[in-house]
Amino acid sequence: MEEIRTAENGVGSAEAQPRSPKSHNRHFRLFGKDYRLYDSLIGLGFIAPALVLGIIFVIAPMVVSLSYAFTDATMQTLDSVHWNNFYNFGKAFTDPKMWNALGNTCLFVVVAVPLQLAIALGLALLLNKDVKGNTFFRWAYFCPVMLSLAVTSFLWMNLLNEQEGLFNGLLSAMGLPKQGFLNDPEQAMMLIVLVSVWQGAGYQMLIFLSGLKNIEPALYEAASLDGANKFQQFLHITLPAILPTMSFVLVTMLIGAFRLITQPMIMTPSGLPNAAGKEVTTTMSWYIYQQGLNYYDVGFSSAIALIYTVFLATIALGLRKAMDVKD
Amino acid sequence: MADTMLLKKRAFAAEQQTGPVRTEEAVGSEAIAAQKPKKKWTAKKIASRVCLYFWMAVLAVLFLFPVWWMVVNSMKSNTELIAQLSSMKTFLPGAITEWFTSYGNLFTSEALSGAIGRAILNSVIYCAITVAGVLLVNSLAAYALSRIKFPGAGVITTIVLLLILVPVETSIVPQIVILTRLGLTQPATRMIGYLIPGLVSPFYIFMFRSYFVGIPKEIEEAAEIDGAGKFRTFFVMIIPLSKAIFATVAIFTFMGAWNDYVFAQYIFSSNVDLMPLQVFLQQVNNAQPKDTAMVMAALTISTIPIAIVYIFCQRYIVEGVSFSGLK
Description:
heterodimer; A: MetI-like fold; 2 domains; two-stranded antiparallel ribbon; 13 helices; disordered N terminus; B: mainly alpha
C-alpha cells in the first residue's frame, strides 16, 4: 500500500520505487512514457463508452459529410457510392436556390443579431439600476426564454394567424385592414426575426447582467467626481468592462443565427415563394436538410454543408481576430 | 485512516460551500452601502424614476403578453376564444367553469385519438434516459481524463478541446446517414437511433473535467489507501463531492432533450405513437377542426417542466451560463 502512495505522489521518482508485487498492476512503457497496466485498463474502460459513441456519432458524421460531398451518394444507395469529384460543388455554385437560401440567412443574421444584442444590453442596463421590483422585471424579460423554439413558433403562428389570430383580431377591432403576416412574403422574414429576438434576448440579457455586476462601483464614483456625465461613464467604463462578454455573446449569437431552421420550418412550411418564385424564408440549414432528407441527395447536401462550414469558419475566425485586435 | 479520508472529504465540501456564503455577504454589504447615502428626491430625479419605470413596464408588457395570452386562452373554450378575439377580454381568463375544458379536450379529442398522454410519457422517458446516459458516459470519461494515467489520454483530451473550439456545421443529414447505415432508422430500432447519438458531448466532458481537476488528489489517495478501487472511489467519493456539476449538466441536458425538435421530428415523422411532446404539437396544431384554445393548452403543458426547472434550479443555471461564458 505504501508503494501506491509513492507512485501517486512522485511521478519523477517512479523508476526508483521497488517493483510492485501485484502482477496485475505492473509497469509498462509506451512511447517513452511509464504506465501501469491495471490503471490503464481501468482508464480505458471508463472512457470506452464515450470514445465509441464519440467516434460513431461525432467524428464519423464529420468524415461522412466531408467525403460524401465528392460522391453521388443518395439516402437509398448508401451501399454503392461513386466518386464524382467536384460535380456537386459545380452544381452548388450554379444553384440559384442555394444562393437564395444563403441570402435569406444573411438577411436574418444582419437584422436579428444586432437587434437582439442591442435589446439584451439595453435590458441589462435597465435592470442593473437599483430599482424596486427588479426581480419581477428580470423574470418578465426572461419569460420567453422558457418557451422552446417549437412552442415559440407554434404560439406565434397562432397569434399571427390570418383568420383567427390575435393580431388580426386587434387590428380589425381598431378598424385597420387585416394583414397576411406569415402568409405574406413581404413580411414573413421580418416576423421571424422579431419572434426570434423576442424569444432569445432574455438569455443574453442575463449574461450581460452578470458582466455588469462585476464592474467596481468605485469606478463610477471616481468618474462622476471627475465630472464625467452618464454617457461618458457608459462609453469609458461600462463598455470596455463588458467588451469580453460582448464578444463572447456576439460569436455565439452569430453561430446560432446562421443555423436558423426550426422557426421558418414550423411557421412557414412552404418556404413561402414570392411572386417571382423565390422562397423567402428558406435558410441555409433548412436547404441542407431538404436536399439530404427530403430529396435524399446526400452528396449534394454534404457539398453545400461543406461550403457553408468554410463560410462560417471564415466569419468566426475573422471575427475573433478583429476582436483580439481591439483588446 | 478512514477518518483522514472522511475529514478531507468534509474539508473539501466545506471549502466549496464558502463560495455561495461569501457572495451572500457581499450582497448584504452592497445593500448597506446602497442605504448609506440618503438620496435627496429632487423633482428631476423623481421624473427620471417615473420615466424609467414607464419604459421597464412597457418592455415587460411586450415580453410577457404573448405568454400571458397563451396561458389565459388555454383556460377557455375555443368558441369563447374566437368570440373575444377582437375585445380586451381576450387578455382575461374565461369563466371558471371553462378553465380546464381545453385541457380536457386535449386528452379526449377524436382528432388526436387521445395520443397526447402517450406523447407526454414519451418525452419523460426520452429525457430520463438521455439525462442518465449523458451523466454516466461523460463523467466517467472526464474522470479518466483528469485522474487516471493511461495511453491515449493526452490525445483524447486534445481532440475534446478541438471539438469544442472549432465550429463545425453539425448538420443532421450525416447523423441520419450514419444511423441509416447502422440500421437504426427502422421502425423497430428508431427509438435507439434517436437516443444514442445525444449521449456523448465533448462540451460536457470538458465541463466535468474542469470540475474534477479542482478536487484535491488526497481524497482519492485516502480512499485508495483504504483499499477502494477506482470504480468505488468514483461512485462513493467523487460523485457526492461533485453534486453541483452533475446537477448543472443534468439540467442543461434535460432542457435540451425536452425541447429537441428538428431531429425528433425527422426520426418520428411517421410514428405518432413514439413522438415526444414537442413534435406532437404539430399534430395538435394541424388537428381539424382547428381548436386554438386546445393548441394553447398543449403549448402550456409543454412549457411547464422547463418553467419549473428555471424557477427552482436558478443557481445551477447561472453557474452553467457563467461557465459557458468562460469558454
